[in-house]
Structures are given as C-alpha cells and as structure tokens.
Amino acid sequence: MNDLARRSFLAGSLGVGAAMALAACADRSDPGTGPGGGKTNLVVAVSALAPSLNGVLDGNGLTLQAFEMNANLQAGLVRNPYLANAKTPGSVVQNFNTYTGYVAESYEVSADGLKYTFHLRKNLKGPLGNPITADDVIYSFKRKWSVPTYATASWGDFKGPDAITKVDDHTVTFEIPSAGFGLTFLGLLANLQGHIYDSALLKKHATKDDPWTLKWSANNGGWGLGPYYMSSQTPDQEMILAANPNYAYGAPPIKKVTLRVVTDAGTRASLVVSGAADMAEDILPTDQAKLKSNKSVVVPEVANPIAYPDLTLVTNKAPFNDVKVRQAFAYAVPYTQIMKQIYAGRAVPMKGNINPGMKNYSTASLPTPTYDAKKAKSLLAAAGHPDGLAFTLSVSTATADLVNACSLIKSYAADAGFDITIEQMPAAEFGTARTNATKQAIIYLNRSQVQTPTYACITFFKPHDDPSSPSRWEDALNKKFWTYVDKADALKDTLSPEGGRLWAEAQKVQIDAAAEIFVCGIQPTQIYRKNVSGFAYRSENAIDFGNVKISSE
C-alpha cells in the first residue's frame, strides 16, 4: 500500500449534530447562577451511562461511564492532589507521587512502613446527613471482601478487613504486608478499590436475601461520599447529579450536573461548539484536532497521557512463544503513522508503561519504539521464518480507532514479513478471549488505574496464567524482569533513586521481551467550552465535576 492510500485512514470532516440531541442539550431554562456570576448548572454530552452504580461499588466496572461515577459519587481515605497543567492553562493534572487526605483529614506511617493510621474528618457526613466514622471504613472493606464481584486480587497479600483496626470513632489503622507496598496501597485507597460508604444508609436498605444492599444501591444514590450523588436517571438517556452539601472539600461550585446521552461522537462535539453543552466526552481525535483552532472550545492536552493501545502478543502458543518473533513484530508496527493517521497527532511515543512523571524515574535509557521492516525480516529469519509468518490479530468492534489501527498495522507489517488476518469481535466475546488468553494477538485500550511503578509492572505481568496477564508472559526474560521488580518492591521507598534505577531496568527487559507492545499514549478524549475551568486529567480519564467552575460567557 502506498503512502497516499495509507493516509486515507485519516477520518473526514467533523460531523453535524443531530437535531434531537441538539434540542435536548440546548434546554437552558434553568441556567443556574452563583453569587459571583458563575453558572451552577453543567451540561455534559456523553456516549453512554453506567448501567448500574454497583460497577462503582465493586471496583470492577472498567468503562469510562463507571469511572465517571467513581470520580464523582465516591471518595476514598486519600487522593492524589492536583497540579497546574502546563500544557493546557486553566486545567490540572493529578500528582501521582504523593497522596493527601480526602475522607481522612490526615494520615501517618509507622517507622517500619507497615502501619498506616488515618484520622477521619470529625464532622464529615454523607450526602443525606449521616455522620461518617471509623465504623463506616470497616463496614466498607467488609462489604468489598464479601461481594463476589469485588476484585480483591488487586490488593495482593493485604488482608482486607482483617488488617483494619478501629482505634476510636475517627481513627483507623491498616496493617500492610510490606513497606514497599505502601505507595500502591495508597493508590488503591484513592482509586476504584478504596471508596468509603455511608453504612447507615446502606444498612437501612439491607434485606435477608441482600445483606450488603447490592440491589438497592445499584439504582439509588447518596451512599457514596464524593462531590455528587445521583438524584435521578432515565436509563440510556439522562442522569442528574446533585451536589453533595457535605462534601469533604466543601460544597462544589456546580450544583447540578446533567449527563445526556448523545451516541454520535461528531454530534457531541458539535453541541459544545454551539454552546448547547458545556463539556463532551469520547470525542474523536480527528474532531479534536480540527477544533484546536476554534476560539470557543478547549481541547486539553497533557505531558504524560495515561491511556494507550496495548498490542498484546499471547506467549503461551505459537507463533509468539518465540521471543525473536515477538521482537520482529515490535519492529513491524508503524508507531508514527498510527499517531498521525489514527490519532491525528493527539498521541505521544511510549517507552514502557510506567508513567514518566514518577519521582526519580527516567525513560532516558529506554529505547523508543521504531518501525524497521528490514530489522523485522532479519529477526524473523533468525527465528526460522525466512519467508515470513502469518497470524491473526483480534480486536473489539467497540473500539473503532483500534479497528482502523489494525488495518494500518496489517499494511505496514506486510512489508516486514507478517501476513495478518484481522478478526473483529463483539466486545463481550473479546473480553472473554483477553481474560482466557485464547487468541494469538489482541489489541485493546489499556491504562494503569493506579499510577505507581509496582502496579504498572505487577498487574499486567503476573505469572502462572493469571487472568490479569493477557500475554501469559513466562520465560527466561520474565524471570529477569521479576528479579528487578522484586528488588524495587522490597525497598522501603519504591520511588527512591535506587527504585527508579531498578524500575528502568525492569522496563528495559519488558520492552525487549515484547510480550506487550505499548503503541502510544493517547491524549484526553474530552472537550469543553472556553468559560469552563478546573478540568482535571485523572488516571481513569473521568471528569471530576467537583473541581469544575463555569464563568458567564
């Protein structure tokens, strides 16, 4: 395929909004104005809604919609503080090197790094007025460890509720298995897995058949401690979030958030351009690129994007049980072309999967992914495939950008000696194949929900057929990788200079093994009006509405 044909993958012009969606989002009969003149109502055009709030509860809802509920309806004992985002003025990014109090006002760590003591905010209440105490913390973790859908594996050797002690009504201690686990422990507390619930409200709706109130909490709000609670919803159409008057950081400036479903990405973008919506999510990179010059719209960027296409080569079967074949294919991927044509320049090269912004960590010694057809062919020949090699690359039909990326990869990889058959699969079927490692190679959108080196390395590369390790990578290089990871994880401070050196060594081995190929880091998928400030780029790619302000236009 020539370069002109390859460039045809670049999407066309920005879609025109559908009239019905425009009319729905344009309803501003109750604009809401604060005492300083700023607006207090926010309208957000979204692609879908979370079907159940229990996706938030379980820490197991791995969709943008579930993440959105996590960020706004829930709160953990701690969270990552925000820093100004130099790439987009008026926005912020999470500081992943430190944690600050959230439901807890403060915390302290014992000298040996094994005991964390949290001091809860003494006058904190849930959205409906119930006092929050140490009993709510213990109840929350008992509930997590008692429901079948909660992912306790993320916590490693942490014993859950058995490791938590109530000191008094506003003090709890957690015992962790090793000092090196401390940073990831805080990260888990701050993200999907660590939220604290209003136990009085949940117990009120418990039944004999449903002792943990899973049925009631799936469709009713107010049991989380985030900046908002769900006040109403119309399935697949609209959800209304009301400000939590008892929020830990004070009542949010935006009093009402309306999430309206607009299924077409181009239409969502058009609604923000017209002013019918204040913000929109899941916008195509090609549309974002076109909107960068629009004076009424902000298209945010960050230095270190977290989401990335993960090209996983399944190593428990041919042909990718051979490291030379995997290395050859790593040179057959057109990284630059994917960033330009699929993501319209809204992507950056990735060197491994540890966030480059981590303290004392540097990617300077790591190789930049490069397309080199000649080198790929040479490695294939050394692996015993001088005439090339055929395999199947599987992708979910729900990820249009990755479907298009597969076609681009197929084209360029052909020049490098690979004959690729693209298999498009329904999302649910693809998810099962990913978990069970039944395919030869897959590509999907990935991210580390907890931004620590330990989590990034361990979660996706656990040995012995762990479902969270889609590559099933387990060979001599894997053993070498774990040598560095175990040494880094054994340090009391995993972000020390020695930790940074060890993490870099582990990433070198990981990149060399090519069990997973990190194609590029993708920029945020949101856009918003110029009068909106406080957009926060977070590890789960959700908007923190509690940090948003809107000035009058």
Summarize the structure in short:
The protein is α+β, with helices and mostly antiparallel strands. It is 30% helix and 19% strand.
Could you explain the architecture of this structure?
Helices cover 30% and strands 19% of the residues. The protein contains 18 helices and 25 strands. It folds into 3 domains: 166 residues, D-Maltodextrin-Binding Protein, domain 2 (3-Layer(aba) Sandwich), CATH 3.40.190.10; 101 residues, Dipeptide-binding Protein, domain 1 (Alpha-Beta Complex); 215 residues, Dipeptide-binding Protein, Domain 3 (Dipeptide-binding Protein, domain 3), CATH 3.10.105. The chain starts with a helix and ends with a strand. It is an alpha+beta fold and 553 residues long. The N terminus is likely disordered. Helix 17 packs antiparallel against helix 18. The strands form 7 sheets. A 7-stranded mixed sheet has the order 10-11-12-1-13-22-14, with helices on one face. Strands 18-17-19-15-20 form a 5-stranded mixed sheet, sandwiched between helices.
Number of helices: 18
Q: Strand portion, in percent?
A: 15-25%
Radius of gyration: 24 Å
Helix content estimate: 25-40%
> What is the architecture of the largest domain at the second tier of CATH?
Roll
Q: Which structural category fits the helices and strands?
A: alpha+beta
Q: Give start-end ranges of low-pLDDT stretches.
A: 1-24, 26-31
CATH class category name of the largest domain: Alpha Beta
Within the largest sheet, what's the order of strands? 10-11-12-1-13-22-14
Overall shape: it is globular
> What number of domains?
3
Taking all residues together, what is the mean pLDDT? Answer: 89
User: What is the CA-CA span between the terminal residues?
Assistant: 49 Å
Q: What name does CATH use for the topology of the largest domain?
A: Dipeptide-binding Protein, domain 3
Let me know the CATH homologous superfamily of the largest domain: Dipeptide-binding Protein, Domain 3
Number of strands: 25
Main beta-sheet annotation = 7 strands, mixed
